[in-house]
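Email to the structure team, subject: non-specific serine/threonine protein kinase model.

Hi all, the expression group asked for a predicted structure before they design truncation constructs. Nothing fancy, just the C-alpha cells so they can compare against earlier work. One-line instruction: predict non-specific serine/threonine protein kinase, return C-alpha cells.
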Amino acid sequence: WQFISSSSSLLSPSTSSLPPPPSPPSYLLQQESKSEAFMKQRRMGLNDFIQEIANNSYACKHPKVQSILKISQPQEPELMNQINLGLSSNPHANPSDFHFLKVIGKGSFGKVLLARHKAEEVFCAVKGLQKKAILKKKEEKHIMSERNVLLENVKHPFLVGLHFSFQTADKLHFVLDSINGGEFFYHLQRERCFLEPRACFYAAEIASALGYLHSLNIVYRDLKPENILLDSQGHIVLTDFGLCKENIEHNGTTSTFCGTPEYPAPEVPSKQPCDRTVDWWCLGAVLYEMLYGLPPFYTEMYDNILNKPFLLKPNIMNSARHILEGLLQKDRAKWLRAKDDFMEIKSHVFFSLINWDDLINKKSTPPFNPNVSGPSNLRHSYPEFTEEPVPNSIGRSPNSILITASVKEAAEAFLGFSYAPPMDSFL
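Reply from the structure team: attached below.
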C-alpha cells in the first residue's frame, strides 16, 4: 500500500508549471470520492493482512515474506509481534531488551519478573499480562486504568513508578521500579502484628499515597497488605492499580462492586454508591490488621461489615483506638474522613509525632530495615515464586497466543497502552 499511496510522487516536477486543469464534472468527483474510499478500504485490508502474516511465525520464515516485510532479525520472533500504536507507543521496546532473572510474583493474568535492562544496566520489574486472559474476563478497562494511573505516579515516593510500557502480539508489559524489601503481607505474617509506632509510620506513608491519588481524583479501591510493598530502605510502596477509579471528584461516587472481601467499606457489599472515603475505611482495616494480626471482620465478612458492632480490644493506646473507631465507623455522620479527606486524616492525634514534610521527602527513618544487599537480593520474596523457572520465551507464551481473528480485537482493546517517557532512559 505504500507504493499505492506514494504513486503521486512519480509525476514529473515540470507539471507544476502548467496551468491548472478545469474543474471536473460532478459525476467524476463522485467517482473520485468512491475511488478514495475504495483505496482506503484496500489499504486497511492490506494492513490487516500484513498484521496477520507478521503474527504467523511459520509464514514469516518464508524468504519472499521476509523480503516484503523487511524483517532484519528473523531469529527473534518478538520483534515481529509488536503492534505500533502511534505517538504514544514505544516501538523499539521488546522482551529481548532484558535479561530476565527471577519470577517475583504471579497474578490472574500473568507474572512479574525481576529483570535487568541490557542497555541501561538497571534492575526493574517487568509485569507481563496475557491479552487472551484479559479479554476473556473482559478486564481490559481495568488494565488500561492501571496504565493511566501509573503514568500519574511519577511524582510520589510511595507509589510504584512506571518506566515505560509496551506490548507484543499476545502480551502487555509494564516496566516498573524494582522493589525488593518484601511484600508488606510477608512481613506481617512473619511477625503477626506490629508495635504502634511502626504501624503509625506505615499508616502515615499509606495515607500520604492515598491523599495524593485523591488529589488527582483517583480512588484506589483495593488497599490490602498484598498490594503494599517495602522498598530496600523499608518505606511503603503501593502497587497494583487495576481497580482504581479515575475522575472521581471530591463529592463524586462510583457504584462498581470491587475490592477484597476482608476490606471493603459497608457501601460496597450493600451496593450503595461509594466515594473516595472507601480508601480511608480500607486504611482503617489495614491499620487494625497491623495492630491485631487479623482483619477487623475476618469471618462471614460481608455480613459482619454490614451488621456486626465494631469492638476494639483494650490493649492499644487511646489515639489508636480513636482513629480506628473513626475510620471503621459505619455511621456516615460520625466518619473520620468525610469532611476534609486526607487533611482530616493527617491532623489526627494518632499522627501527632509524624513530621509530614520529612515523611514525604523520605527523611524519616523507617522502623524496619529489610537489609537487602542490592537490587537482585530477594531474601524477602516468596520462595514459591523465586524458585519457579523463568520462562524460556517471555515474548510469547504457547498457551496464550492470540488466534489471528482476535489480533484486531486486541489491538483495539489496548489502543494507547504503550508508553515511552520523554527521555529514553531509566535515570
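The two ends are 40 Å apart (CA to CA). The chain has a mean pLDDT of 74. Ping us if the truncation boundaries need rechecking.
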